């Protein structure tokens, strides 16, 4: 098989393209012939040794992918050769094949495109867990999504709309704001040109958003928290800006607000039945046309470094894929 191998924790630039023996699935595993894999922010962190999960070296990065089952190990009875599946874990996806534990594999319903499946569970699972489970979003509430044109951000926009919320999408360019309106945002804020806090006052008549969905961190966290509505929920999803903000906690006191941590990977590990039910609901929404991954660009697998470069530059509108066959 062909794969990108992480042999040292020196970042994307140290990944090496290798020809490796195609693995055989062990008991409880199945082998997936990978058709597409998506890039997620943790993929950058894991090859630098900065992510919570730390696979033993050497390893193949790539936490989310989709393909066709082409072999099953002993004891696997719930999957069959030829079945389309998606996989979410910590690594293994930036390759032509991967052997994975059957518990990590998601069967795909008829009509679920493999490229969409490779860009689905991580972002939509995170956003559903954040907004519906942790944030207790109710129809009619107002949601501010920071970094709204990225992978998790665009998923959050769609899920919030599907749940009946009013969505304000904040992004860093006019093109990104245009995309957010195309996928359902009711209003947008270009925070490269507008003052975030003043724009929120105008758009909410001074009340502020009920929920702030923040996968970015950095400089916009404090003005967003200052703007939150009474009894608002601030969802801490990630720190794509690279810095973890130090917020004045008296703001939570003054607004009666809740600061809510969102760690989807740990939710999947600790509450597998609830996680599986959430993914099943999201897959149903997909088949109904209520949500659909935004794909920015597709790269041949051999061009993974170029895909990482685009993600790191924050140019991407939605998800980036590496695919077989291009």
From TrEMBL:
Domain of life, source organism: Bacteria
InterPro entries the UniProt entry points to: ADH-like_C, ADH-like_N, ER, GroES-like_sf, NAD(P)-bd_dom_sf, Quin_OxRdtase/zeta-crystal_CS, Zn-ADH-like_protein
Residues in Enoyl reductase (ER) domain copies: 11-322
Listed PANTHER family: QUINONE OXIDOREDUCTASE-LIKE PROTEIN 2, SHORT-CHAIN DEHYDROGENASE/REDUCTASE
Full protein name: NADPH:quinone oxidoreductase
Source organism per UniProt: Rubrivivax gelatinosus (Rhodocyclus gelatinosus)
């Amino acid at each position: 098989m062909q794969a990108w191998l992480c042999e040292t924790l020196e970042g994307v630039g140290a990944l090496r393209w290798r020809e490796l023996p195609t693995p055989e699935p062990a008991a409880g595993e199945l082998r997936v012939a990978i058709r597409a894999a998506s890039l997620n922010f943790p993929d950058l962190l894991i090859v630098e040794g900065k992510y919570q999960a730390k696979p033993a070296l050497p390893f193949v990065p790539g936490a989310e992918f989709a393909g066709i089952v082409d072999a099953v190990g002993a004891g696997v009875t719930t999957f069959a050769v030829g079945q389309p599946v998606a996989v979410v874990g910590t690594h293994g996806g930036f390759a032509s094949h991967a052997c994975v534990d059957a518990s990590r594999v998601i069967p795909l319903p008829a009509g679920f495109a493999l490229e969409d499946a490779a860009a689905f569970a991580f972002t939509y699972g995170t956003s559903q867990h954040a907004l519906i489970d942790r944030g207790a979003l109710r129809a009619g509430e107002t949601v501010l999504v920071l970094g709204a044109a990225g992978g998790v951000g665009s998923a959050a926009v769609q899920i919030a709309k599907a749940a009946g919320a009013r969505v304000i999408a904040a992004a860093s360019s006019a093109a990104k704001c245009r995309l957010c309106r195309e996928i359902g945002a009711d209003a947008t804020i270009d925070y490269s040109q507008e003052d975030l806090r003043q724009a929120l006052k105008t758009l909410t008549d001074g009340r502020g958003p009920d929920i702030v969905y923040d996968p970015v961190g950095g400089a916009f966290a404090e003005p967003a928290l200052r703007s939150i509505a009474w009894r608002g929920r601030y969802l801490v999803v990630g720190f794509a800006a690279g810095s973890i903000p130090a917020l004045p906690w008296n703001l939570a006191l003054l607004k009666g607000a809740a600061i809510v941590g969102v760690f989807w990977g740990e939710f999947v590990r600790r509450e597998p039945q609830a996680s599986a039910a959430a993914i099943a609901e999201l897959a149903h929404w997909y088949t109904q046309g209520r949500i659909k991954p935004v794909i920015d660009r597709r790269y041949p697998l051999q061009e993974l470094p170029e895909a990482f470069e685009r993600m790191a530059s924050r140019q991407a509108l939605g998800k980036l894929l590496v695919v077989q066959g291009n």
